[in-house]
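WARN no homologs supplied; continuing
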Amino acid sequence: MEASDATLTPNKSSYEELKDNGVPEISVYPTCDESNSADAEFVGLVYESLLAIESGVHAELIKAGSSGSYFVKDRNKKIIGVFKPKDEEPYGLLNPKWTKWMQKSCCPCCFGRDCLILNQGYLSEAGASLVDQKLKLNVVPKTKVVRLASETFNYSAIDRAKSRTKRNITEKFPQIGRRFHRLGLPPKAGSFQLFVDGYKDAEFWLRKFESEPLPPAIQKTFQLKFERVVVLDYIIRNTDRGNDNWLIKYKKPEVDEAQSQTTPNSDWNLVEGPEIQIAAIDNGLAFPFKHPDEWRTYPYHWAWLPQSRLPFSKEIKDLVLPPLLDMNFVQSLCDDLYELFKTDKGFDKNAFHKQMSVMRGQILNLTQALRDSKSPLQLVQMPVVTVERRRKTYGKSRARADSDDTLTQRFSTRSPFFSWC
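OK structure emitted
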C-alpha cells in the first residue's frame, strides 16, 4: 500500500491516549480530508474502535450472512461500525461461516459469481461509498478501507501462535520484546462502514406501506431517495440488491391527541412531522468485469416495486445528469476508483480496465434513460453495453482527457441461462 498521504493523525488528546495504549496510527483509503466534518467524524470513530479493542471491547461476529462481518463497538459497547475483513469474505480463506465451504466442496460449478473478481468485496464496499459521495447521492453510509486487529477475528493457528510466543518472550525478556514490530495479532485489511441506527430492512417497511400508505409529501420524498439507490446500483452494477440489504428508517408523525379532538384533520395537531431515510448497505458484490452472461442475471429486486414504474424525477436528473455527461468527471471517477482498488495486493490493471468499461456502459445507458424520461424499470430493460477506452492509464499520473483517446461501445450478445434470478 502507498501510505504517503493516507496516514492520519488524530487530535492531540486522542493521539496521547492512543500512544499510551500502544495503538499505532491508522491508514484510511480513500484518504480522508480532515477539514471535512464527515471525514473527521469517520476518523474519530475508527480511532475510538481501536481504543475499544485495546480496552477489551472486541468486535462481535454478525451471525447473519455468509462471510465474516463484525459489529465494531466503542468503549461504551455501543455499535459504531461494521467491519468486513478481506480474508473473511464469502470465498476468503479464513471465512468463519461454513456455507460457502460446503458450496465449494459439493457444487464447485456454482462456486462464486463468474462476473466478479473474488475477494475484492471490501473494495467494492468502499468504491460504492466513493461513487455515492462523488455524485452527492448520500444513501451509502460512509465506508472506507482500514486495517483492524481483534481477538474475535478469525485468524489462522499460526498467527495466533506467533502472537502468543511474542507476548511470552516480551514478558520474560523485555529487552528482546522491544525489538518486535508488533506484539498482538496482525491487523486485517477490510471495509469499515459507519453503523446506521434505527433502520430496518426495506422488506419490512415496504409491506407496512402496502397496508398503511405514506402521506403524499413523504411518498414523494421516499420516491426521490429510492431513485438515488437506483442510480447507485445501476452505475456500480450491483449484483446483490435484494430488499433485505437496503434499509429504511421511517419516523411516523407525532400527533397532539388533545388538540386533535378540538381541531381534527389539521396540520396544527402535528407535534413532529414524519421523516423517512434510506441506507444502501451491502455493496460488496458490485463492479463486475463483465455483464452476467453465464447462469444467473443477478437482477435488481427494486425493479419489481411500484416505485420503479414511475419516470425519473426532475430532481434526480438535475443532480446526476450534469456530472455524468461530463467526460472529465467520469474519468476522474475512474481515477479515484483506481487509486482505491490498486491498494489491493492482487490488483490486476487489465481486470480493472474491464470493470471501468462496464461502469461506463452503465453510465451511458443511465444518462440516455434520464434524458428520455424513462422509469427505473425501463432502464434495466435496456440492452447492456460496455464502453472501452483505448488508453488504459488511470490515476494521478494520467494526463487530462486526450483528443486522440477514443471510446468504443460493445453490446453484449450473450444472455444468462436464468433470467429471473
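The longest strand covers residues 79-85.
OK
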